[in-house]
Amino acid sequence: xxxxxxxxxxxxxxxxxxxxxxxxxxxxxxxxxxxxxxxxxxxxxxxxxxxxxxxxxxxxxxxxxxxxxxxxxxxxxxxxxxxxxxxxxxxxxxxxxxxxxxxxxxxxxxxxxxxxxxxxxxxxxx
Length: 126
What we know:
By secondary structure, the protein is mostly helical. The chain has a domain at 37-112. It has helices at 2-19, 38-69, 75-113. The longest helix has 39 residues, at 75-113. The protein is elongated. The termini are far apart.
């Protein structure tokens, strides 16, 4: 049963990628993993780590829900599912709070030092 749940989660995560027709070949970036000045690279690394952690916790919440739905009234599985959902929700709240704190700190540092830079959240035009 666990393999089936893992396959469902994997398919759910990969389906939007497989259905996407635009893969961004017209927007080529210079070679290398990160680009820009040191503060921008640090922002990119932190955003990447927090994004991956957020995805992990959302997947854990979904996994807990699937375990709960397939528990067939088994009280041990329901207890495990509740613990998984509660712990994953706490983790997701911590990730969101850390993102807000990091954004606040980096924006404060860029304002204090006078070094222009885009927000940690990105979304600006280059």
